[in-house]
């Protein structure tokens, strides 16, 4: 027999198999193009449009001009004007803003008297990249406004510490600007999602491939009992994994939990059920474990890149930014960072918790309906 006898026939047969498998063709051509287009527009390492709240106690043309200078850089977006320093801190703790600008009541008077007008800039340091950008730009704005004031009034020279506009930044939550404090809490959500989703999807598909799913269906087990029996063990595995990575985060990476651990576990229930439901939903479409893995990666990759885990969502184009609201990890990562880094409570995270809860209920309902239909 010749060494390559029959090669042409085998190659022809494999091409026929690929052509008759539309799912494979979809993963080969369409999905990579979709991901390349989506991530190419979404990923932007330049930090801009940082959510900012302003507490203007002066309400003067000079204070408004200062706020306009921050906005005109395009690095700061004013999302709210508040009436107290407590509201500024609440916005930063709750994650609604990443920068808080406080202008004192004597700001304009100090400038007109030739003194030094102080401006406090509070920065959420949990994201070291965004915090560094905010810090540098804020200092630059203070210097630029001071140069303008020197030019307009003819004050002699620039004395360090006697700048007309004295911006005084203060870093909160992560004064050392350690990147691990930003990435490790979000990584908990990424790991938890990946493991629970893949385990659930593989469990159903594995039984279908082995032919044991049909055997289970002919036993005196209800479809509801079968579905819950599939979900509950992986829920327990998910929480054991969550506890393990939480301990590693505190012990190895020295990232303490500032908020309520019980609240963190309670809100994690919503996310675990959402990811398990996604896995169950994937299992109703996939026919092989290979397809299940490819579908899971289709969900996991956007969750990592579009949820705010690595790149700021505010810097993304508007259509992609709107798409991020459909990703459960978007809300869970904000909950993780809020409780772990900023010590946020339910009063400041209620909107993320509510949206994650609604999404979890919707995914559970959709996956169970789809699963029942598939079994029927």
Produce the secondary structure layout.
Elements: H1 7-19, H2 22-42, E1 50-56, H3 61-72, E2 76-81, H4 85-93, E3 99-103, H5 107-112, E4 117-124, H6 128-153, E5 165-172, H7 180-210, H8 212-217, H9 223-251, H10 261-285, H11 289-306, H12 318-323, H13 328-342, H14 346-375
Parallel strand pairs: 1-2, 1-3, 4-5
Antiparallel strand pairs: 3-4
Helix pairs in contact: 2-11, 7-9, 7-10, 7-11, 7-13, 9-10, 10-13, 10-14, 13-14
Question: Please, could you describe this protein's structure?
Answer:
There is one protein chain. The protein is an alpha/beta fold and 376 residues long. It has 2 domains: 50-172, abc type-2 transporter like fold; 180-375, no CATH class. It has helices at residues 7-19, 22-42, 61-72, 85-93, 107-112, 128-153, 180-210, 212-217, 223-251, 261-285, 289-306, 318-323, 328-342, 346-375; strands at residues 50-56, 76-81, 99-103, 117-124, 165-172. The protein has a 5-stranded mixed β-sheet, with helices on both faces. α3 (61-72) links the parallel β1 (50-56) and β2. α2 runs parallel beside α11 (289-306) and α10 (261-285) runs antiparallel to α13 (328-342). The model has no long low-confidence stretch (mean pLDDT 82).
